[in-house]
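Hey L., structure's done. Input below.
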Amino acid sequence: MTARSRDACRPAADGLLDLRRWADGLLDLRRWADGLLDLRRWGEGQLDARGWGDERGAGAALALAVATAALLLAMLIVGAGTAAIAQARAASAADAAALAAADALSGFVDGSPCALAQAVAAASGARLDECRIDGLDARVTASVPVGPLHASVTALAGPPR
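Output:
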């Protein structure tokens, strides 16, 4: 190799040396990070070959998280089921109260239509919120408590058209 060709290769060789210095700097950073891991030991546990601390109790924490998630899901399902049952109870009470009011309007039963609707709704375990008479039609709204809320349903009864 001539002197001229050796000089032409010199910048490439200098670039390799710069890369080696950069890689040495990375190794120094890794040593520094390993020193941080030594400072973060937990209790009496020693670091294992991977550089992680003692993992005792991790299974218990995972089991607690899974149990909490299962409990929250069960509470959500029970709450939705309770609301659906209350809605069905309110619907049956409103239907029965509207039919009772329509029977009073048509003359099959003696008494005030709204008073009969109130009695039927109370017997069904619901509260009569509204009773409106429109000709021979009775529109009744009944509600059933669901915790702090109320499930409410409106029913309409009258002669066929």
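The chain has three helices and three strands. The mean pLDDT is 81.

-- N.
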